[in-house]
Amino acid sequence: MNGNDLLTKPSWKLRRRAVFGSMIFAMGIIVYTLVRWDDTSLAQTLVLSSFALIGTVVAAYIGGAAYEDVRTYQTDAESLPITEGEIDV
Hints:
Number of domains: 1
Largest sheet: none
Structural class: mainly alpha
Radius of gyration: 21 Å
Low-confidence stretches: none
Number of strands: 0
Strand content: under 5%
Mean pLDDT: 80
Helix content: over 70%
Order of helices and strands: HHH
Distance between the termini: 23 Å
């Protein structure tokens, strides 16, 4: 399995849609709050929560990609044949 196969799988397409949709939603809230609302505690909470949502989504996306890379690497390494003279660690 090469790197291009991982990017074209339906699960990654759905993940990217969810990530971009969440980020667009959060950015929309931030822009709307900054343009339309006065400086109230509700506006501050909305902006802070939107930035938290963006950070969480990015961290989860990167973490999921790293986990899948490690899992794929381990699966590929386990399927390789061991030839004579090699040490299995």
